[in-house]
Amino acid sequence: RQAIGDRADRLRSDGYRTVKIMGRQFKAHRLAWFYVKGEWPTRDLDHRNSDRGDNRIENLREATDQQNAFNRAGRCGKPKGVALIRSTGRWRAWITVSGKREHLGVFPTQEDARAAYNRRARALHGCFYWGQHD
């Protein structure tokens, strides 16, 4: 029911774009993968730059649930794996590995703590670590 030249997709509140085909909703990034690769993705698709609306094929890659989680930002706009210790004014850094929190140290600045997190995340998660966007 779209007019020629209009976008066929809709932007959802969670940032994903969807397309309705024959009464069924599909995520646009999965359709883009299918269109370019000629096959439906067998795993989750990760947006390399974490922009859920950026469905260029070079921004998409197959990923496990865990790899996809590595490429997520912190919650509520806060840096991932870093927190202020209010009593001292210093910054703690940690990373979760196999469900267990690994302490990375206490640092004088948020930038130092974040750098420690990024170094460890890069070593553990390779190209899927969130810090690649900093």
Record the SSE blueprint.
Layout: E1 9-11, E2 17-21, E3 24-27, H1 28-37, E4 44-47, E5 60-63, H2 65-70, E6 82-85, E7 90-97, E8 100-107, H3 110-125
Antiparallel strand pairs: 1-2, 2-3, 4-5, 6-7, 7-8
How would you sum up this structure, described in words?
By secondary structure, the chain is an alpha+beta fold. The chain is 24% helix and 30% strand. The protein has three helices and eight strands. It has helices spanning 28-37, 65-70, 110-125, and strands at 9-11, 17-21, 24-27, 44-47, 60-63, 82-85, 90-97, 100-107. The protein has a three-stranded antiparallel beta sheet. A hairpin with a 2-residue loop joins β2 and β3. The radius of gyration is 19 Å and the shape is elongated. The N and C termini lie far apart (41 Å). The model has no long low-confidence stretch (mean pLDDT 86).
Jot down its keywords.
3 helices, elongated, 134 residues, 3-stranded antiparallel sheet
- Largest beta-sheet characterization: 3 strands, antiparallel
Structural class: alpha+beta
Q: Any idea what the shape is?
A: elongated
| Estimated radius of gyration | 19 Å
β content, as a range? 25-35%
Q: What gap, in angstroms, lies between the N and C termini? A: 41 Å
Question: Strand order within the widest sheet?
Answer: 1-2-3
Mean pLDDT level: 86
Brief digest:
It contains 3 helices and 8 strands, in the order βββαββαβββα.
